[in-house]
C-alpha cells in the first residue's frame, strides 16, 4: 500500500526554494518551535490533507513545462518534510524517473539513518542554520543543535550539495561573534554551494494570531538591507574580519 503524505498545501511557482521554478510541497508537522516561524500552521499534522506520492505527481505534471524550461524542480518543505521520509522517498523516486530535480528544505533536525534512502534521490538540500550558539539555538527553536550538527556532517560525508539558509533576526541572530562562529563552523563543509541570508519578516504573525497563539517576536523589526549584506559578508567569509 502506498504511503500517504500529510500535506499542508502546494505552491506552484516557487522561485526562492531552489533553482528555477519550483513546485513546492508543504508538509505538515514539525518538531521545532521557532519563535520566528512563518508557517506556524504547519506545526500540527492533525488537520493535514492526505495524498499518495502518485496523487502529488499528478499535480506536479501539470507544471512540467514551466519546471523544465526554467531548470527548476520539486521542493519539499514544511513544517519538517523529513519526518515523513517514506512519503518523500516515494515522491522523489517518481521525480527521478521523470527527470525532475529534487530538493528538500529542512531544519536538519532529523536522524541521518532514517533519511539515508531519501538522500539517494535528493539532488539538493536547503539546510537551515538557525544559530551557531547552542544555548541561543535552544532558546530560539526549542531544541538543541546536536542532531542538526550530526546531520550536517552526514551530508558532507556523502558529498550532498547544500545551500545554507540563515534567518537574520535583529537582536536574536545578528550578533557579530555568533555570525563569526557560524562562519567558522561552515568552513568545515566542502559540500556547501551557497549561503543565503533571509531577512526576518513578521508576515507569518497572522498565522499565530489565527491559532490564538502569542507571537514571540512582537515588535522585532526586519533587518535593513545593509544588515543583511553585512551578515552575508561575515557568513560567507568575504567580509574583512
Ligand atoms: S523548522 Fe521551520 S516550520 Fe518548523 S518551527 Fe522552525 S521555521 Fe517553523
TrEMBL record:
Residues 16-239 form the Radical SAM core domain. CDD domains: Radical_SAM (cd01335). Activation of pyruvate formate-lyase under anaerobic conditions by generation of an organic free radical, using S-adenosylmethionine and reduced flavodoxin as cosubstrates to produce 5'-deoxy-adenosine. It comes from the Bacteria. NCBIfam families: PFLA, PFLE_PFLC. Its main location: cytoplasm. The keyword Ion transport does not apply. It catalyses: glycyl-[formate C-acetyltransferase] + reduced [flavodoxin] + S-adenosyl-L-methionine = glycin-2-yl radical-[formate C-acetyltransferase] + semiquinone [flavodoxin] + 5'-deoxyadenosine + L-methionine + H(+). GO terms for cellular component: cytoplasm. It is an enzyme of class 1 (oxidoreductase). PROSITE patterns: RADICAL_ACTIVATING (PS01087), RADICAL_SAM (PS51918). Belongs to the organic radical-activating enzymes family. This is Pyruvate formate-lyase-activating enzyme. Binds 1 [4Fe-4S] cluster. The cluster is coordinated with 3 cysteines and an exchangeable S-adenosyl-L-methionine. Its cofactor is [4Fe-4S] cluster. One of its GO terms (molecular function) is [formate-C-acetyltransferase]-activating enzyme activity. It is found in: Cytoplasm. Its EC number is 1.97.1.4. Keywords: 4Fe-4S, Cytoplasm, Iron, Iron-sulfur, Lyase, Metal-binding, Oxidoreductase, Pyruvate, S-adenosyl-L-methionine.
